[in-house]
Write a structure and sequence with these properties.
The chain is built from eleven helices and twelve strands. It is globular and about 65 Å long. It has 394 residues and is α/β, with parallel strands linked by helices. The chain starts with 7 loop residues before the first strand and ends with a helix. The longest helix has 39 residues, at 248-286. Helix 6 (163-172) links the parallel strand 5 and strand 6 (178-182). Helix content is 41%, strand content 13%. Helix 2 (42-62) packs parallel to helix 8 (248-286). Strands 2-8-7-6-5-3-4 form a seven-stranded mixed sheet, with helices on both faces. The chain has a three-stranded antiparallel sheet with strand order 9-10-12.
Length: 394
């Protein structure tokens, strides 16, 4: 009796499975050490100690100091705090923001909200690879500019942006603006050091690091907090930047995941880059009409984003789900949206081309067998879709 094929999970950019040791750490603080970190009794003190330990682990992943890390409910909240908070706190100094056309929706929609408040936003274009030119960022600056937000790695096509070069250009030009980068997709994939990057604010998300959903972090460079207005009010937690009782279990899990990423990330990235190249080459050989999207070399080690001529993304994803391949067409945060990818359109693709894409993102559990079997199943699904199209046309 044939059952459903075993699932090959290649959607790690959407979310990662929780690692057993990370889940065990969370469970300890769900069930045994359940105290509130603000309480003075021993359960509260243990929770506080665990939160501060996780803060040190998270800071270590990006070369920051523990006091420069605040915990949030995830990457979206951290991005909103960075963008909305920095703009509103500095409104008297200026009301102009520079970002890119390919940012995550949590940055783009925060910018759109600021436009409703009277701020002006310049959306810097990208090239055919989805890359931002540092010179274009510099050219967009005005005397009113108070914030620049450029993601470190694109969540759809995997292009790694020249954030350090942008920071260097801003400093060389004497532009004292707050510089934020969304590093949600980059963390655990590429080396991260806030001093090397030259950023003031940096966003992380736990569930892209093999921790549970519902926890994230924002790095705030020392001396920058006065240029950041909180989104929430009501308590003294997280230096009053993010009040509310902490998600202790999520925070300690994120700390554990960050420690694992710091220790194992470089070796994992090398292994995934090999699998990525094998997957891309296999698809280009097995499926006619495949084009690799994103920068050919400056890209995440786990990301393969392709266009497939004449094959609608939604139809393909349904076929792949039935065939046991978990993939996506782009950002999980825009899944179900009628509009085609804003990232692909910013890269110069037509609306039709932006609807004919597939994103495959690899992770810890994937191996060469997964890659080869995924290529086989994807090729079969594409052939089935195209054959059906030929029958309809005939």
């Amino acid at each position: 009796m044939g059952g459903k094929p075993q699932m090959i999970y290649m959607d790690h950019a959407a979310t990662t499975p929780v690692l057993p040791e990370v889940g065990a750490r969370a469970a300890e603080f769900w069930y045994q050490q359940f105290g509130n970190p603000s309480s003075v009794h021993r359960l509260g003190r243990r929770a506080r100690s665990a939160v501060e330990g996780a803060r040190r682990q998270t800071a270590s992943l990006i070369g920051a100091e523990p006091e420069e890390i605040i915990f949030t409910s995830g990457g979206t909240e951290a991005n909103n705090l960075a963008v909305l908070g920095a703009a509103r706190a500095q409104a008297e100094q200026g009301r102009h923001i520079v970002t890119s056309a390919v940012e995550h929706p949590s940055v783009l929609e925060a910018c759109a909200a600021l436009e409703q408040e009277g701020f002006r936003v310049t959306y810097v274009p990208v090239d055919q690879w989805g890359m931002v030119d540092p010179a274009a960022v510099l050219a967009a600056m005005t005397d009113e500019t108070i914030l620049v937000s450029i993601m470190l790695a694109n969540n759809e096509v995997g292009t790694v942006q020249p954030v350090a070069a942008i920071a260097l250009a801003l400093r060389a030009a004497g532009r004292p603006v707050v510089f934020h980068t969304d590093a949600v997709q980059a963390a655990g994939q590429v080396p991260l050091n806030v001093e090397d990057l030259g950023v003031d604010l940096l966003t992380l998300s736990g569930h892209k690091l093999y921790a549970p959903k519902g926890v994230g972090a924002l790095y705030i460079r020392r001396g920058i907090r006065r240029k950041l207005q909180p989104l929430l009010y009501g308590g003294g937690q997280e230096g009053r930047m993010r009040p509310g009782s902490e998600n202790v279990a999520g925070i300690v899990a994120m700390g554990e995941a960050a420690a694992l990423a710091a220790a194992e990330g470089p070796a994992l990235a090398r292994r995934l880059a090999g699998l990525r190249d094998r997957l891309a080459a296999g698809l280009q050989a097995a499926v006619p009409g495949v084009t690799l999207n994103g920068h050919p070399t400056e890209r995440l080690p786990n990301n393969v984003h392709i266009s497939i001529d004449g094959v609608d993304s939604e139809t393909l994803l349904i076929h792949l789900d039935m065939a046991g391949v978990a993939a996506s067409s782009g950002s999980a945060c825009t899944a179900g949206a009628v509009e085609p990818s804003h990232v692909l359109q910013a890269m110069g693709r037509s609306r039709e081309q932006a609807r004919q894409v597939l994103r495959l993102t690899l992770g810890r559990t994937n191996d060469e067998n997964d890659v080869d079997e995924a290529v086989r199943r994807i090729a079969a699904a594409v052939e089935q879709i195209r054959e059906g199209g030929r029958h309809r046309d005939g």
